[in-house]
Amino acid sequence: MNSKQLYRMRAPASGREAIAPTEPGQTYVDRETGEEMEPVAMALPLAPSASSLPRRPENLRACRRCDQLIGLDVSDCPYCGLRQSAV
């Protein structure tokens, strides 16, 4: 991992995910479950934008069951597994 890169982190047992700037050699822990999180993907830089979010709000929607924010391109909610309706 490069210093201060944004990575998608996942807790293996619960499947909870977070996007965070990480540093090599550091251990990251989920605040709610206490599980150690592992880097699973590097967030790629987006085109210049006024937003510093990895995903812009207009590309997100809330899951009908758990109300977690998920991408418009997602078919099944990664948090609760509910199949999402077409957009």
Describe the protein's architecture and organization.
The mean pLDDT is 83. The chain starts with a strand and ends in a 16-residue tail after the last strand. A hairpin with a 6-residue loop joins strand 1 and strand 2 (17-22). The relative contact order is 0.18. It has a four-stranded antiparallel β-sheet, with no helix packed on it. It has a two-stranded antiparallel sheet with strand order 5-6. It has 87 residues and is mostly beta strands. It is built from no helices and six strands.
Q: How would you sum up the major sheet?
A: 4 strands, antiparallel
What would you report as the Rg, rounded to the nearest angstrom? 14 Å
Helix amount: under 10%
Strand order of the largest sheet: 2-1-4-3
Cα-to-Cα separation, first versus last residue: 35 Å
Structural class: mainly beta
Pattern of helices and strands? EEEEEE
Q: How many strands in all? A: 6
Q: Which spans have pLDDT < 50 for at least 5 consecutive residues?
A: none
Helical run tally:
0
Proportion of strand residues: 25-35%
